[in-house]
Amino acid sequence: xxxxxxxxxxxxxxxxxxxxxxxxxxxxxxxxxxxxxxxxxxxxxxxxxxxxxxxxxxxxxxxxxxxxxxxxxxxxxxxxxxxxxxxxxxxxxxxxxxxxxxxxxxxxxxxxxxxxxxxxxxxxxxxxxxxxxxxxxxxxxxxxxxxxxxxxxxxxxxxxxxxxxxxxxxxxxxxxxxxxxxxxxxxxxxxxxxxxxxxxxxxxxxxxxxxxxxxxxxxxxxxxxxxxxxxxxxxxxxxxxxxxxxxxxxxxxxxxxxxxxxxxxxxxxxxxxxxxxxxxxxxxxxxxxxxxxxxxxxxxxxxxxxxxxxxxxxxxxxxxxxxxxxxxxxxxxxxxxxxxxxxxxxxxxxxxxxxxxxxxxxxxxxxxxxxxxxxxxxxxxxxxxxxxxxxxxxxxxxxxxxxxxxxxxxxxxxxxxxxxxxxxxxxxxxxxxxxxxxxxxxxxxxxxxxxxxxxxxxxxxxxxxxxxxxxxxxxxxxxxxxxxxxxxxxxxxxxxxxxxxxxxxxxxxxxxxxxxxxxxxxxxxxxxxxxxxxxxxxxxxxxxxxxxxxxxxxxxxxxxxxxxxxxxxxxxxxxxxxxxxxxxxxxxxxxxxxxxxxxxxxxxxxxxxxxxxxxxxxxxxxxxxxxxxxxxxxxxxxxxxxxxxxxxxxxxxxxxxxxxxxxxxxxxxxxxxxxxx
Length: 677
Ligand code: ADP
Ligand code: MG
What we know:
By secondary structure, this protein is α/β, with parallel strands linked by helices. The protein has 25 helices and 22 strands.
């Protein structure tokens, strides 16, 4: 049977070389793949409606009798119309077909058919244009609609699937073990395949769909858990002592319970003798930097090197400043490594890293370019990891002797989803903000209220506080989006004269960016007009107002990140979202921002509005693509599948038992495409 699944699609009746190529284009090279090529939608003919009650403009099925022979009319442009009238006993409806001479033979006067299409109406009569039709007695109640490609219609695919079914043996090997199928009331594979393609009725379709979703999520989760299992190798980089308490003594504040817990979990990993692969998830402002620093300190005190990687130069600088400050009296050697170092400086850092003299390297991805050699790298931390995918993680851990890996993310996502997206990582959650934080009051305004907003900014500036203003563009362009340079000019000359105003954007030289950021952090600038380069991680606790122009341009999570630049100290902070956009979706998004400061809620909403593919960027997180399951809308099945995956791997880590062979084969198949080279 498995051989049938692997057979080339050409072995099907009606599929020759040319069609086989088209099937290949759809990702269907074999008969097995064809059976797993699920319809994208269905035409439901099982509940035909009356002509009178048919919804206008949405496809529906109508059972009706043909009242008179089809009549042919030629119209301009060489077109021929074919018209007839049908009745459901209560009302008539006119049918029109274009250039289809066959309908005359197919539609017989006095016989009943099911017509499927959109009904339109004018004040006199109801009509359908080019409906599909089937003899009323003989047709399937629910018909599959397949994703098509040029030259391969849904109908052709349907026929190929039908002939594939005739080749299937009566009993199929089901990859899901019997006992689990019973426990979760899942249908058998054969039933599921038949009813996903040709559902007997809506209930059977639901049963089939549930079973296939379960199977797909189970296979995905098994694969991810196995990756995680394999990465838990014995490590030569076992720590012997935990110095995190000592480090906490260096902090100017008392760590939160959540920070302590996260540090403890990561320390336990590194003390265990296995390699750490951990994600720390914490909302903006939850204090991830201190967690990272505590771990770096412990690793260094154990005689190894640590590296902290940030996604931008600005952030790398900031971390560097924070860490050198904290570690000032500990004798730790810290170095900054970014793409913009001078050649001489870079050489010095490289030498220090190779000799082991530099113990802590802070930088951008430049840290992991080919010419960087560490003498004894024990720990790699990446900050704001949502910018890195599975493949980059693998590249990082290839540096040195498989160092411990910690990734930090400010995108809080529900735990079930995190288990999938970060299936290869253990997770710590910072679910507590440092004490004294006040929620950031958030307002959405239209641009005609801008002047009032500036008065508000000025009040804060006069009290010694600072403000950010975010514009989507760098320079003025064709559109009427706000631009950093022009906006800053108007602030100086017109809106906030006398205030010290700086600008920041991605096209400035690293040195310029650095000095502007340093001036802002030191309080020498009152207002920073910037593009979203400040989105990630920047920490200036004296900044209390975040004003975002063209707020409609940003996704919820991005707005939340931007807003997280304020409210980091003890002062009450405000976020002002400026937008003139009228559409409902924008209004809904801005409303959520005004209502909540909770990153988890915002991420949930963002997921709901955008869908997981968009949210994470399919290519970026590097997960295999799913055929039928949807991680967002199938969370309850996902939870069950996660429980089963955990249980199965506990019994049989290699899926070596005969009853698990089917699952193992599916896991291998799903993941073969994404093996990191
Ligand atoms: P994020 O999680 O967004 O990276 P940071 O590490 O930048 O957050 O911390 C945000 C701010 O909170 C910083 O100014 C930091 O010094 C401060 N902070 C962190 N932990 C604590 C704490 N336990 N108590 C008080 N302030 C803290
Ligand atoms: Mg941070």
